[in-house]
Amino acid sequence: MRSPGTAADFRFNILIMGKVARFLSFPAVLFFILVSAAPTPTAAYPRSMAALGDSMTQATNACCAEGNHPAQSWSTGDGKDDGVKSHYERLLRLQPGISGRNHNDSQSGAKVADLPAQAALAASQKAAYITILVGANDLCTPSVETMTSEAHFAANLKQALAILDQMRPRPQVFVSSIPDIHQLWAVLHTNATAQSVWSAAEMCQSMLARSNTEEARQQVVRREVAFNAILSNTCAAYAGTCRSDGGAVYEYQFTTDDVSTIDYFHPSLQGQARLAEITWEAAW
Q1: I need a surface site. Which of 125, 131, 138, 145 has the fewest CB within 10 A?
Q2: Which residues contact 74 (CB under 8 A, 6 or more apart)?
Q3: Hey, which residues does 52 pair with through a beta bridge?
């Protein structure tokens, strides 16, 4: 048995301690790295948001009665027990600091030409996260000939995104594709009530007019495909701060249950819920 304090004891203790240290070092270092790298639960999420766009984001005719129902909006809605888990409500669970700072700057009837002014309003509100869904009213005009041109659409979208890019700090921006207008016609054109409502309200006649030819409808389809490409490509120019849905909303094959039975055009509550789900997956 070694007597304490000898040189041999010292070397023996160093050897044992070295083995223990090597045994402990990897899990200890790994634990330190994981703890250090893990973000605080709220750090990555915004404390304010704004929604830009048209009546789809105002949740027009989504339920209950005719008119706007922004509390049921897929983006900034905060309605209780409506089945719509909006971006705001999802963010609220992740970042309580966003509470009450959900600005819905969209306007019923808005076209892309209205987007720069909406962007300026969101900038004045210092919104840290901004959603954009616009273009349906640029397609849904009295006739095919009166649809917004691709050049005009692109110019106004670029102007709006440039305004947001000048904000400091820069906000996170999400750009949705436009829902498939032809799909709306496909699922409801044999519904007599829908046809009657579309005709009486002169709703989206470029696509939904009973007298339209299929070629006329395909012109709307081509223009919508072009608009969605512009939305995606313009957003991509702001890599790091802008994310698009890659056409996910356009590709969603909605059913009659996703459409309001008030006007047979806007999303129903179920439609708003699906819109929230699809866009949230793309945005976050």
Answers
A1: 145
A2: 56, 57, 59, 84, 86, 87, 267, 272, 273, 275, 276, 279
A3: 132
Residue 149 backbone phi and psi in degrees, to 5: -75, 160
φ/ψ bin of 247: left (φ > 0), alpha (ψ from -120 to 50), beta (otherwise): left
Q: What is the DSSP letter of 62?
A: -
User: Residue 12: CB partners within 8 Å, gap ≥ 6?
Assistant: 2
CA gyration radius, the chain: 27
Instruction: Write down the H helix ranges in the chain.
Output: 7-37, 87-94, 115-124, 136-139, 150-165, 181-188, 192-201, 205-208, 214-236, 248-251, 269-283
Write out pLDDT tens, residues 59-114: 999 999 999 999 999 999 999 999 999 999 999 999 999 999 999 999 999 999 99
Pairing of strands 49-53, 172-175: unpaired
Distance CA 282, CA 248 (A): 8
What is the pLDDT at residue 42? Answer: 61
Contacts of 27 (CB under 8 A, 6+ apart): none
